[in-house]
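REVIEWER CHECKLIST
Item 1: Sequence provided? yes
Item 2: Single chain? yes
Item 3: Sequence as submitted:
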Amino acid sequence: MSDISASDSPYEANMGDYFALLKPRVMSLVVFTGLVGLLVAPVPVHPFIGFVAILCIAVGAGASGALNMWWDADIDARMRRTAGRPIPSGRVAPGEALGIGMALSGFAVVLLALATNFLAAFLLLFTIFFYAVVYSMWLKRATPQNIVIGGAAGAFPPMIGWAVATGGVSVESVLMFALIFMWTPPHFWALALFVKSDYGNAGIPMLTETHGRDSTRRHILVYTLLLVPVAIGLGFTSIGGPVYLAIAVWMNAWFLKGAFDIWRRDDAACEGDKHKVEIKVFKVSLYYLFAHFGALLVEAALRLYGIGGWSWL
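Item 4: Structure as written out by the authors:
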């Protein structure tokens, strides 16, 4: 990667530019799922320790974003959607982004280890490594399954939150991980079907570019079918319950119907109604994770009063 000195740019970076390096929209989902993983765990955590843990998860996610933008600066400059990011637009030098990403990574991992435990810190370190190196430097440019495998990076936060509280890994934290992991492909592929992207021009082998839209529709259906039992199964663990199960059944029936509707369509139908179905399914996917993890929080709150989960049966 070539470096660019700050003096080469006609702009002077401000705090907003540096904050944009951290991908705050992605960070918000990471913080929410990590917080849920911490709060639904069976071991209580001191509020201050919990705050520090969530701060470290957020900072680690931001560090991953900065490292991703540093590495992807060349392709970001070739795509309309990303050309305005701080590095390709010249507002932040690549070396600055690399330095910020490395510094924040070290800060988040070390602080989490000192404040909680080494397992949680290791999981955070592995998450940063997976997103910055495995996904950004390798998978993204190498395979159309980049979203599938790379989705693991966004799936670790609830597992980290659980490890902060319990010091371990359990079936509950694995299923929370799997829920996000299996949701990621149909979520992004639904978007890819109706957004005119320039990934092909940038040399990124997204599924819609390499295998076409019909194959992408089939992939959405297959991954949604695999997602449903994971989401439903979580309802029968110690952190699930009737409230979660009811919401999971409803959301998964809604999402699965949308996947079937997409699978039955062709390009002519999509162009005819301006991708009405694909847009609807993508919007459903935006609510999907928040509904499931929000329901887990409701179950945890009910358990405080002795009425949550399946203990009443």
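Item 5: Key structural point noted by reviewer: The chain has two domains: 1-168, 170-313.
Item 6: Recommendation: ____
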